[in-house]
Amino acid sequence: MIFVELLCRYPYVTGTSVIGIKYKDGILMAADMGGSYGSTLRYKSVERMKPIGKHSLLGASGEISDFQELLRYLDELILYDNMWDDGNSLGPKEVHSYLTRVMYNRRNKFNPLWNSLVLGGVKKGQKYLGTVVSMIGVHFEDNHVATGFGNHLARPILRDEWHENLSFEDGVKLLEKCMLVLLYRDRSAINKLQIAKITEEGTTISPPYSLKTFWGFSAFKNPTLGAEGSW
Amino acid sequence: MTKQQANWSPYDNNGGSCVAIAGADYCVIAADTRMSTGYSILTRDYSKICQLADKCVMASSGFQADVKALQKVLASRHLIYQHQHNKQMSCPAMGQLLSNTLYYKRFFPYYSFNVLGGLDNEGKGCVFTYDAVGSYERVGYSSQGSGSTLIMPFLDNQLKSPSPLLLPAVDAVTPLSESEAVDLVKTVFASCHRERHIHFVVVMLWSGTVDFVNDTCKELTKENSHGDKVEIVIVNADGIHREFMDLRKD
């Protein structure tokens, strides 16, 4: 039954951008650890990237509780896949397809999961990077993807500087460059991020760390200098 | 309690345009490869064209998630048809199926603007054009999507289609040969390209010698850097042939 009162919903605790890129050995993904409650920075240790099964890595922005719900759906999916015990396992393409269907179906029932997702992985040497753009189910795959503000600020940098067969170091540098721009310009970004890597061998999510910022611009030191009639 | 206003929409427009032109023994279907949302480009490399059957190709623009769902529904219905009838669906049959599928969701529509192209049972080119809720018509050529308002009048002028009001009905299938259509294509490309809408880069229909096409591309790309692409699919007696052409990226 569709109860209208339940359907006009708002997100409460939200995460901001996630960025993902393909590199030489697999996929690199970056996300900060902030959980905002409207304009309050309420939670500062939210892990917004999680490994899924053996071959995939999921990053999410948007409502954190909906992300946790998705993780429960995926847990069940992977469990049933393992229980077949047939030597096969769901790859990133399959997981992305599943997520797209779940998101689209919830949108059809007017009860969306308020997330934007990045799904990356490697299986049998094939790299895969896909995204579910929003809660209404638009999706695509590409060599580099981002959610939210990342689409506006990070994608242009990636279009310019991404190329095939990036080394791990170059990939991390590129992601950090994008995350720095987001840190300066996205008000919901915080300076505590993780970088996740997924290759044929498996997933590694780095411990949280900070980027070096620079605020010593002369214009910031005396902002009213030269402003006529300022008071 | 005052009535709540919706704060999200189940629809989005991911842009793009599609075109199809029917010839005596061929059909050309084309669409750009840009996917956008609002003023952002999501990707430059997304195919809006889907092969539904041996001689039947659909191009759709609009809301991508609905387009994908629609393609999946039609593909699975075609599979069932093949199991039950031991043959491929003809283009007119698929045309009817698409119409019915769209009307099925009349009260929560697929936001998908489609053109269906292919060969009919006699091997003649056929094009069917649709609105979002399934009204359809067999025509000689059509365009749908963001750029259709720019493209359609141009095609009307160049293909000199007979009035649909004439009786007895006159077929609008173009008598142009595959190579003659190339000149037309080049001009349509140039005009839509310059006047383009942000949502689509170019919509092209093709048939012609490979050399001419390549020369065209070189000439057009001379003025700008690179671009999103146009995907062009040609259906004829030999089967299905796919080509890409680069476009401006801005």
What's the structural blueprint in terms of helices and strands?
The complex is a heterodimer of chains A (231) and B (250).
Chain A: H1 4-7, E1 13-15, E2 18-23, E3 26-32, E4 35-37, E5 40-43, E6 49-52, E7 56-63, H2 64-83, H3 92-108, E8 115-123, E9 126-132, E10 139-141, E11 144-146, H4 149-161, H5 168-185, E12 193-199, E13 202-205, H6 218-221
Antiparallel strand pairs in A: 1-4, 1-7, 2-3, 2-11, 3-12, 4-5, 6-7, 7-8, 8-9, 9-10, 12-13
Chain B: E1 17-22, E2 26-32, E3 35-37, E4 40-43, E5 49-53, E6 56-62, H1 64-85, H2 91-104, E7 112-119, E8 125-130, E9 136-139, E10 141-145, H3 148-159, H4 178-194, H5 210-222, E11 229-236, E12 239-246
Antiparallel strand pairs in B: 1-2, 1-10, 2-11, 3-4, 5-6, 6-7, 7-8, 8-9, 11-12
Helix pairs in contact in B: 1-2
Short descriptors:
heterodimer, A: 231 residues, alpha+beta, eight-stranded antiparallel beta sheet, five-stranded antiparallel beta sheet, 6 helices, 13 strands, globular, B: 250 residues, Proteasome_sua/b (chain B), Proteasome_bsu_CS (chain B), proteasome (chain B)
Number of helices of chain B: 5
General form of chain B = globular
Low-confidence stretches of chain A: none
The most extensive contact between chains is:
A-B, 23 and 24 residues
Alpha-beta content class of chain A: alpha+beta
How far from one another are the termini of chain A?
A: 60 Å
> Rough shape of chain A?
globular
Percent helix of chain B, as a range, is 25-40%
**Biggest sheet strand line-up of chain B:** 10-1-2-11-12
Low-confidence runs of chain B: 199-227
Helix content of chain A: 25-40%
Report how far apart the termini of chain B are.
48 Å
Name the beta content range of chain B. 25-35%
Mean pLDDT of chain A: 93
**Main beta sheet of chain B, described?**
5 strands, antiparallel
What is the succession of H and E elements of chain B?
A: EEEEEEHHEEEEHHHEE
Rg of chain A computed from alpha carbons, rounded to a whole number of angstroms: 19 Å
